[in-house]
Amino acid sequence: MSVERQVRTLMRAWPLPDRTERGDEIVGTTLDLMPDGASRVPATLALSVVGGGLQARWHMRPPLWRWTYYRLGGRLPSRWHRWVLNDLTSPGWRRRIVTSQLMIGLVAAMLGIVSVQIAMHQDSPNLFVLLPMFIGFGIGTLSRSSKNRNRQLARYGYGRPAPNGSPWPPPTPSG
């Protein structure tokens, strides 16, 4: 495996928009920092590339409370529009929507169980009563995920994504 290919493999730690917009620049700079004639990427340099990518991912994400608000259907400030577009158009978008909605539903159900138990002073919860509800909720969420995604894209000023098109560079928002 060539050194450039090794660096490009390490670049997978970076978010897709950064890889698309500045990937060649980062690879070129990393190759410039390598010792002459090296056949492998030094460990310190590899850690720096991966660490930079993870840091870029961390700074790109909204805080937990804003993420929860977004998943519940709220609109994020413009600072996180790039993250929203990436979230709604990159591979795995359906899995992310369904998983997050199921997790929010689970937390809400658990809070409901605890509050009912406190109100009724019961000792043991009956979780098997809730199992069919979660299965139905999951199937309903899965069937509505495309509709939810298209509604969110429209809310942020982006039309429907092209079926086979790349989401980057993003389309110019309307309005």
Q: What is the radius of gyration?
A: 22 Å
Low-confidence stretches: none
Q: In this structure, how is the largest beta sheet organized? A: none
Given helix and strand content, the structural type is mainly alpha
The tally of helices reads 7
Q: Beta-strand level of the residues, as a percent range?
A: under 5%
**Outline:** elongated
The total of beta strands comes to: 0
Q: Report how far the terminal alpha carbons are from each other.
A: 47 Å
Mean pLDDT: 77
The helix fraction, in percent, is 55-70%
Give structural notes:
The protein has about 180 residues and is an all-alpha fold. The chain has two domains: about 5-60; about 65-155, no CATH class. About 65% of the residues lie in helices and about 0% in strands. It has seven helices and no strands. The chain has helices spanning about 5-10, 15-35, 45-60, 65-70, 80-90, 95-120, 130-155. Helix 1 (about 5-10) runs antiparallel to helix 2 (about 15-35) and helix 6 (about 95-120) crosses helix 7 (about 130-155). The longest helix has 28 residues, at about 95-120. The chain is elongated, with a radius of gyration of 22 Å. The protein starts with a helix and ends in a 20-residue tail after the last helix. The relative contact order is 0.10. The mean pLDDT is about 75.
